Amino acid sequence: MVERLRLSQANRKRIENIDSCFGTQGETLWTEGRVLVGEGVLMKACRKKPKPRQFFLFNDLLVYGSILISKKRYHKQRIIPLEQVQLQDIKDDGNIKHAWQIMTRGKSFTVYAATEMEKQEWMLHINRCVQEVIKNGKRPASEHAAVWIPDSEAPECMCCHASTFTVLNRRHHCRNCGNVVCGGCSTHRLLLPVSKHPVRVCDTCYNKRCNSNEISVPVPSTAKTDYTHFETDESEEEDGEDKPVEDNQTTFYGSTEPSTSTTL
Ligand SMILES: [Zn+2]
Ligand SMILES: [Zn+2]
Asked: Which candidate among 33, 98, 142, 216 keeps its CA 20 to 30 Å from the CA of 248?
């Protein structure tokens, strides 16, 4: 009982500490019943290269942010409800080591752990927590956003293979398949099951969707506002300094039972 209380107080302190690290930049994460299951730094694949991000696994959320000062100051908080999360293993291959995909409704991405053991631990804990929230009645997401191919893997348009990218001929990402394509090969917008607004898709996906009579909403070229919104989102990863993280320690905490849980 005392042990339980101690654990719950320790848990509250940890979460309140995370809140203070994000400051006004983030939502308040501490709430009765929320448990911090684990935390640590993972490399997150961004458009240009993988960047360190501080990840927090709660019993109901996965949260991450950019690191301004390790363990002191985080910003750009992202909150993902666990029922939306689905993991996909990536086998080691050349330079790609200890990686897996975190698929969510709004955004899917690849992360890299420092060691195989860390990767296994993260995947195990995330999967366990996801199963738990779904068991408790949350509806899992049936659709997940495409994982974007990093810019470096596409020297040329993956659609026409004729267009090479320059400062003027920019790369674009198809929101349906994640491929890197040129502007000429991505003139259409579609309302995808995972998007609130019509979003950029490559011609291959556009034709496939239209031919298969799936939900396809061709967007008139006047629908500029939403497009701008997503273009902003596209470059969102690139700003901000990313200092190397020295203390790259991953911690998983013992009890994952919410202190206030009542036995059902
Ligand atoms: Zn092209
Ligand atoms: Zn596509």
From this structure: 33
